[in-house]
UniProtKB/TrEMBL annotation:
Modified residues (4-aspartylphosphate): D52
CDD domains in alphabetical order: LuxR_C_like (cd06170), REC_NarL-like (cd17535)
Keyword DNA-binding included in the entry's annotation: yes
Record domain Response regulatory: where: 2-122
InterPro entries: CheY-like_superfamily, NreC/VraR/RcsB-like_REC, Sig_transdc_resp-reg_C-effctor, Sig_transdc_resp-reg_receiver, Tscrpt_reg_LuxR_C, WalR-like
Name the UniProt record assigns to this protein: DNA-binding response regulator
Domain of life the protein comes from: Bacteria
Example of a GO MF term: DNA binding
Organism: Streptomyces aurantiacus
Alphabetic keyword roster: DNA-binding, Phosphoprotein, Transcription, Transcription regulation
Listed Gene3D superfamilies: 3.40.50.2300
Entry annotated with the keyword Ion transport: no
Length: 219
């Protein structure tokens, strides 16, 4: 796995690089600016880009803009965005365009090494890794959607964990239920959100995007 890192805090940037290299991962470049990371992506053609949301010169949305541009240049690139705190508009801007190979985590997760590495692997494998706190806030904002109101509390729990990027087995383990129970809840979610098996989309992705898109419109 070839990785590039964009983080303007030199200590965090180098610490993250050391952590990943210690795990046997290939950090091919680091940068302290959005422009620098885009140049590195063009040069090294990595598998994964890890980007901070706020970078010079304005420390507002440079990381998100760079992430969107990086995906435009290399659609197959997996992108993991890090943020010091939940920024809903940035999370939805990145995620509503598609969730394949995308992640949005709070920086505090980096300190929980196993969780961070698991999220990184999921993103690199084409999956999703959305911070539970981001999911919780987006889900709260999207509860006014009438279709989402159809869901039971347990179905909401399952959908929230789906949004984090967890598979059925991991969801079952987290909720302490059987795989069969999770499968039943997911079938019910699809039905209540009017997602037909005949739809030409991945219903799991569509269910997650349904409330992410609603949250984006309400931010």
């Amino acid at each position: 796995m070839r990785i590039v890192i964009a983080e303007d805090d030199a200590l965090l940037r180098e610490g993250l690089a050391l952590l990943l290299r210690a795990e046997g991962l290939d950090v091919v470049a680091t940068a302290g600016t959005a422009d620098g990371i885009l140049d590195a992506i063009d040069t090294h053609k990595p598998d994964v880009a890890i980007l901070d949301v706020r970078m010079p010169p304005t420390h507002t949305d440079e990381g998100i803009v760079a992430a969107v541009e990086a995906r435009r240049r290399r659609p197959e690139l997996a992108v993991l965005v890090l943020s010091a705190y939940v920024e809903q508009s940035f999370a939805t801007e990145l995620l509503v365009g598609g969730v394949t190979g995308l992640g949005y985590l709070l920086k505090e997760r980096v300190g929980r090494v196993e969780e961070f590495l698991d999220a990184l692997k999921r993103v690199a494998d084409g999956g999703t890794a959305i911070d539970p706190e981001v999911v919780a806030q987006l889900f709260t904002r999207s509860r006014q959607d009438t279709r989402l109101e159809r869901l039971s509390p347990r179905e909401r729990d399952v959908l929230a964990l789906m949004a984090e990027g967890l598979g059925n087995g991991a969801i079952a383990e987290r909720l302490v239920v059987t795989d069969g129970a999770v499968h039943k809840h997911i079938r019910s979610i699809f039905a209540k959100l009017d997602l037909s098996p005949a739809d030409q989309v991945d219903r799991r992705v569509a269910a997650v995007l349904r409330y992410l898109d609603d949250a984006r419109r309400r931010t």
